[in-house]
Each structure stands twice: as C-alpha cells, then as structure tokens.
Q: What sequence folds into this?
C-alpha cells in the first residue's frame, strides 16, 4: 500500500482494500454524506493489522451480541399521501421505491398507521362518529380506503413483507368525558377551556360499556383492515397517553389502561381470534412508575408483548428493560423537529438513534416520511420529513434525515444484531447482519475532520471522517 501524508491529520490511502483471511477476502467499503455531498463512496481508508503503538478510538466486539433488530420505518399519514398525490406515477413511485424497496434507499420494513385521526390527518375523524353507537352499527373505514390504505398498498408494492402496527390518538369523541377529539383547548379546535383535560386524569369514560365498546372498536379496525389485505401485526393502545394536546389526544391513567388491557382488550382479542399483538405504547414520559403499575399486574402483562417509547419516554427505557427483559422494545416516533429539515436535524436524530439502540430497542420509527413544502400539520405545527414534495413545482427534495436513514436502515436488515463497542469515541454504532457483515455507522459533528481508528478483531480500520459527516462502513464477512 502507498500512503501519502498530506498533514498530521489527513491520511489518504490509495489501495485496494482487500486482505486475505481464513474466512476469505475481507473488504471494507465506506460511504459518506456531508451537507454538500450525499452518500458518496470514499477511498481514504486503511485496513491494517494491530499495532501496539496505535491509539484505538473504539473497539468493536463482534462476539458480544446484543439485541436483535426488527427493523425501521415511519408513519403513514393523510398529509403525506396528499403530498404524494400531486405527483405523476413515475415521480411518486420513485419516492416510494426509495423508502420501501428492499434493494434500494432506506429499506423500511415496519411502519405505523393511525387509528382515526392523528395530528397529520387532514382534519378530525374517528371510525365511528355516530354518538353513543355502542353496537358500532356505523363503524367504517371508508375514509381510510381513500387515503391511508392506498398509501399502504403503494408501499406494499415495493416491500411485500412490510409489517404494519397501529395506534389511536383518541377514541371517538363520544367515548370521552369532554365529548371532543382534543384534550387541550385552543381557539382553532373549538374546545372550550372549561372542558379541557389534564395529565393524570382520565379522559376516557370510566365505565364498562365504553371499555367493552372500545375493545370491539379496535378489534373491528384490525379485521376490516385485514379484509383490505392490510394485516395489522400490533396495536399500541394509546398515542402519548399522558399528553393533553390541542390535536387528537386522550389522557389515560395507568390504572385505567391496566383495567382496559386485562379486562377488555385482551379478552376481546382472544374471543375474536385476533392475532395482533398488544403493546404498551406510546410512552412519552420518563417516569417508570406508570409502566410498572401496568406491567406488575400479572393478568395484564400476559397480554402485552412489547413496549413503545417516544420523546421523553427515552428516559424510562433502561428501567423498563431491566425489570421486564422479555418484552420487545420500539422507538415509536423520532422527534420531529420544527420543519427545518437541515443537517442539524440529522445529527440530532443520530444521537436519538444511538440512545435508543444503546438502551436496547429492537426497532426505530421516523414520523412523517413525506410532507409538502409547508411541513405543517392541520393544527399548525411545522415538522420535519424525510422527503419534501413541493406542490407548486412538483420538485422532490431528499432531506438530510433521509440520508441518515440510508446510512443506517439501508444497511441493517431485520435479523441483524447490535454489538458491543468500547472506547473514547462515542458517536458510533455497530451491527452484525444475518450475512455476517459488520456495519459501522458513525458521525462527526465537529467542524474539523477527525482521525479515527476502529479495532475489529486483529485488524484496525483507520480513516479521517470529514467534518459534519455521516458515515457507514461495510466490513464484509467480519465474523
């Protein structure tokens, strides 16, 4: 190999990165994204044997296997499909392929769908807005057939094994104490201040008739979606059950959720022979107390197969995982930002990914995969998206967070495992794939290049990460 040192920091190596071992040819490839250039293959890399004089920044232990990875995804929302619908078939399929095709792009394989309106629905609706319809005679998914289901089926065209989980933002308004879709009052949603809810107080009506009807409501949702050839593999019972919002929301106490799961939803799923899993989610507060109140009930935990965390819930994962290690963990909604869609947002999302994967999650969900150029919800909150569609010009923009996911989920299929890393450099994650390839994802958030040395077995991977960069290293046959 010929090495030319340009200065004390830069090490540029012009070589074929191919070293013989007992398991065949070990090859390292490297892709890099910066604010100005995205996903370019790099060559300034050295793979060498261990040298005791070299300082190691991070050691990767391929024999220290941690949690299995179930996958990555985002959420199907009405405003996303509305943005996609302004495009012709060719452009729309190009976007969907970049999100779902298992051979290209970010390769999403698990996604979320709202049950009724989310904050990125066009407006409020539930699947039964007929007041006091306890027999669910007027239950229907007609609106979803015109929007959400076409969105899902368009994705299924590219990823036939896509898994869909679902969660409600609110039950039908008539099942709630304030007879309104929202919890918090605003001048735009018509909820009077005197009917506003509060965290720690149930907005769901606490009577058995409502609980029984709501359990049947969720069951009907699953069965009706199955009839549309969209199977639902899991239900997360309530989006952010502590949060009182101006958009669709409903606060629950832990004791009410426990009663609903153990006494109504679980038994209803069994009676109706519903195969969908029940997950306790989405948890958006750092307190473990509410989680433990629910899971410590022996009857309740028999029905729960996983825990979903987002936002402040990241502070409760460690305690939950320690006490209930058998439950699978999901990061259910990556923090959505303020519509900036900038490089800083991608760096922040990487930090979130690392936190959640270090805490043991098996899957990681983005929020809005596609939005229009405004990024605004129907309730006025401007948020980020992986892809922006300009409705006026039909221009498509792949935002920095799209490339972050291409660097992560684009290389880490379901069935991969996270591995242990030790060292002074912390902005790095590593995974072993089912093909026994090592995937290293690292960022450099500083404004100067960074010389790094990763130790893998008896080899050192040495490189200089460009400033403000996202990097993926693919180490073939590393086991």
A:
């Amino acid at each position: 190999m010929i090495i030319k040192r340009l200065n004390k920091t830069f090490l540029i190596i012009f070589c074929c990165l191919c070293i013989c071992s007992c398991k065949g040819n070990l090859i390292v490839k490297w892709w890099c994204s910066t604010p100005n250039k995205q996903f370019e293959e790099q060559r300034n890399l050295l793979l060498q044997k261990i040298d005791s004089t070299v300082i190691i920044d991070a050691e990767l232990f391929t024999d220290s296997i941690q949690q299995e990875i179930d996958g990555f995804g985002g959420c199907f929302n009405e405003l996303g499909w509305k943005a996609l619908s302004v495009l012709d078939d060719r452009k729309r399929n190009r976007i969907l392929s970049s999100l779902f095709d298992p051979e290209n792009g970010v390769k999403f394989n698990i996604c979320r769908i709202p049950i009724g309106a989310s904050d990125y629905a066009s407006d409020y609706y539930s699947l039964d807005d007929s007041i006091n319809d306890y027999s669910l005679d007027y239950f229907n998914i007609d609106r979803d057939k015109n929007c959400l289901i076409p969105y899902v089926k368009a994705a299924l065209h590219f990823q036939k094994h896509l898994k869909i989980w679902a969660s409600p933002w609110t039950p039908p308004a008539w099942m709630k104490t304030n007879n309104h879709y929202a919890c918090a009052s605003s001048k735009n949603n018509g909820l009077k201040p005197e009917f506003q809810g509060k965290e720690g107080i149930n907005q769901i009506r606490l009577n058995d008739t409502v609980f029984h009807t709501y359990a049947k409501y969720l069951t009907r949702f699953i069965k009706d979606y199955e009839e549309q050839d969209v199977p639902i593999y899991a239900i997360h019972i309530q989006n952010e059950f502590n949060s009182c919002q101006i958009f669709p929301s409903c606060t629950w106490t832990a004791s009410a959720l426990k009663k609903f799961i153990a006494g109504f939803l679980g038994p209803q799923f069994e009676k109706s022979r519903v195969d969908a899993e029940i997950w306790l989610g989405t948890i958006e507060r750092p307190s473990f107390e509410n989680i433990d109140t629910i899971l410590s009930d022996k009857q309740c935990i028999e029905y729960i197969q996983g825990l979903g965390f987002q936002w402040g819930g990241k502070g409760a994962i460690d305690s939950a995982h320690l006490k209930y290690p058998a439950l699978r963990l999901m990061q259910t909604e990556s923090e959505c930002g303020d519509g900036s869609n900038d490089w800083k947002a991608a760096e922040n999302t990487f930090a979130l990914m690392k936190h959640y994967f270090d805490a043991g999650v098996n899957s990681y969900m983005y929020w809005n995969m596609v939005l229009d150029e405004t990024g605004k919800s129907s309730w006025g909150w401007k948020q980020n998206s992986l892809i922006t569609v300009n409705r006026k010009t039909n221009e498509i923009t792949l935002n920095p967070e799209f490339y972050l996911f291409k660097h992560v989920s684009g290389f880490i299929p379901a069935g991969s495992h996270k591995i242990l890393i030790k060292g002074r450099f912390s902005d790095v994650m590593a995974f072993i794939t089912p093909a026994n390839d090592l995937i290293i994802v690292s960022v450099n958030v500083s404004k100067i290049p960074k010389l790094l040395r990763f130790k893998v077995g008896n080899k050192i991977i040495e490189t200089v990460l460009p400033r403000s960069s996202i990097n993926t290293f693919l180490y073939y046959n590393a086991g």
